[in-house]
Amino acid sequence: MAKSVSPNAISTLLSNPSPDSSSDLPDIVVQVLDLKSSGNRYSFSASDGKKKLKGIIPSNQYSEVLSGKIQNLGLIRILDYTLNVIPNKSEKYLMLIKCEPVSPALETEIKSEQSGITLKPKEDDVVKREGSTAGIVLKPKLDMVSKSAAQILHEQHANSAPARLAMTRRVRPLVSLNPYMGGWTIKVSVTSKGTMRTYKNARGEGCVFNVELTDEDGTQIQATMFNDAARKFYDKFAMGKVYYISKGSLKVANKNFKTVVNDYEMTLNENSEVEEVANEAAFVPETKFNFVPIDQLGPYVNKSELVDLVGVVKNVSSTMSIRRKSNNETVPKRDITIADETKKTVVVSLWGDLATNIGQELLDMADKSPVVAIKSLKVGDFQGISLSAISRSLVLVNPEVPEAQKLRCWYDSEGKDAAMAAISSGSISSSNSGSRSVYSDRVPLSYITSNLSLGAEKPAFFSIRGNISFIKADQAMWYRACKTCNKKVTEDMDAGYWCESCQKNDAECNFRYIMVAKVSDASGEAFVSTFNEEAEKIIGCPAEELDNLKSQVTYWIPLF
Q1: In 39-121, at which residue ranges do the beta strands (DSSP E only) sit?
Q2: Contact 221, 192 (CB under 8 A)
Q3: What is the pTM for the complete model shown?
Q4: CA–CA distance, 510 with 531 (Å, rounded to integer)
Q5: Which of 85, 235, 333, 385 maximizes the CB count within 10 A of its CB?
Q6: Keyword Zinc-finger, does the record have it (predicted)?
Q7: How far apart are CA 83 and CA 190, in angstroms?
Q8: Based on the domain organization, do 300 and 265 belong to the same domain?
Q9: Which domain holds residue 258?
Q10: Of residues 356, 361, 363, 357, the one with CA closest to residue 337
Q11: ∠ CA 357-362-367 to the nearest 5 degrees?
């Protein structure tokens, strides 16, 4: 197989910026140049040896970049695409929808004099057009079926509006959408529908609701509607039904509120078009989990980010009735206690139908210690750490996922006899929030050092567990402090110590620690500043005692 590109491939792409059907595309092979990660996506330049075109690789093919199948200087075959105009950019961008690797990295970049050699096309997929330019390979077009005008009119009237949408506009996969693309139509099913919520802010009152949409490739996106659009589409959207949607807008997803794995989120307004597709089964995506071990739930307490959990059911409570303060309604609640390989347990509260249906199922089989995988749980600090299901939570009993099977093997072999401790069992007193768990804010050092924005907008509080490996003694470990305000004082030329803050002179002063130590744990290390009370616990004596010791020796050699 010759390792080269299709002649004039870039011109072919530019001449057809949005093909109506991928089946009519010629064989387009380009070389990948300048492949690099740009934020949360991969960008590159497509080259045919004469011209270049900047492009974006779709997120559903990132794995092929990471695995090395798509490489810089390598070749790819473009199977589906669209060209977009990016604001503030003079050139168009190639947005790949589907592509396949053809060749790993070549030794050099292909130049124009080399581009006359073309790849041998797949024999079962393509045929050469007689009399065409050598090297241009086209897929055969489907046979055209002639129809009378009466037949066409009959079909148009028989088809619903969604079908007309599909006929006049190309249906695009969700993975190909971006904020700079317009005029798209998608075909999706509703896999989650939220409740209508009201809000009040500086601009007034309003209502909002959102849905999670899934296309037939399994890609998901969250769509949000406000006010008139919310009232227009709330009854229109139904769980499990399929729709054509157009005239919406996209923006970068807010990571604090997004509920699906997608870089973008969709907004529908009152002018958006939503048409139901009749007699079509919904696209049910494979559930993907991102499990968090029970002993690492601390950083998620009272945060907007939801967690997925897998564990063995140790206990199931009976159903309780809880009255909501917001609307005085009574809802059923059931608590289940689950454990995992960290030998910690946590209580998960199920509400509504989950409490009465799945909860009853778990109660009936509690003696068999079933494994549950739960998606989208809210982490709270009630009695330490607690988890609560929400409206879109999903509970799977004895799921066939690797993490659940591994947990089952561990529990059967050793876990059932292991001593378990509740993650909330180490409660300590806090003047600000009453009772809280020592685990609820414990994080590894890597969590702090890798999150450079921590504390940028507001103070961040957490606890760590590690070893002191070094105490920095090349700077003063203590200072002379005012007895009134603990601020630093200076020695007066006459006598005593002058406090600039209190504007007074005292005959005596205090000694207070201000010490820097290196702390290490299994995830990394970091320098930590410690002050008087904490430093006294580390050193084992007051700063004044250490200052007296220093004054009694000729040479001060730090032993830390």
Answers
A1: 41-47, 52-57, 75-85, 92-103
A2: no
A3: 0.46
A4: 14
A5: 385
A6: yes
A7: 28
A8: no
A9: 171-277
A10: 363
A11: 155
Contact 363, 371 (CB under 8 A): no
Q: What digits encode the pLDDT tens for the residues 62-112?
A: 778 888 889 999 999 998 888 876 655 667 788 888 889 999 888 888 887
Q: What is the pLDDT of residue 308?
A: 92
- What is the enclosing helix (H) or strand (E) of 536? helix 532-539
Bridge pairing between strands 421-422 and 434-437: unpaired
Are 423 and 385 within 8 A, CB to CB? yes
d(CA 542, CA 118): 80
164 CB-near residues (< 8 Å, 6+ apart):
156
Locate 100 and state its tokens. 């396949």
The packing angle between helices 532-539 and 543-552, to 10°, is 60
Judged by DSSP in three states, 294 sits in helix
pLDDT of 114 higher than 60: no
73: left (phi over 0), alpha (psi -120 to 50) or beta: left
Q: pLDDT (tens digit, 9 = 90+) per residue, 276-332? A: 998 877 777 677 788 999 988 888 888 878 899 999 999 999 988 888 776 677 889
| CA dihedral sign of residues 248, 251, 252, 255 | negative
Rounded to whole angstroms, how far apart are CA atoms 295 and 301?
12
Which residues pair with residue 312 across a beta bridge? Answer: 339, 371
* Residue 524 CB contacts under 8 Å (≥ 6 apart), including other chains: 444, 445, 446, 449
Q: Give the distance, in angstroms, between the CA of residue 141 and the centroid of all CA atoms in the same chain.
A: 41
Judgement on whether residues 299 and 403 belong to the same structural domain of the protein: yes
358 and 255 inside one domain: no
| Closest of 165, 4, 14 to residue 82, by C-alpha | 14
Q: Which residue type, as a one-letter code, is found at position 455?
A: G
Flag whether 140 is in a domain.
no
Residues 132-138, mean pLDDT to the nearest whole number: 42
Indicate whether 389 and 481 sit together in one domain: no
CATH code at position 62: 2.40.50.140
What's the token pair of residue 244? 């054509």
Torsional sign, CA 489, 495, 496, 502: negative
Contact 369, 314 (CB under 8 A): yes
- Using only the alpha carbons of the chain, give its radius of gyration: 32
Which residues have C-beta within 8 Å of that of residue 233, sequence separation ≥ 6?
225, 268, 272, 274
Q: Is residue 429 part of a domain?
A: no
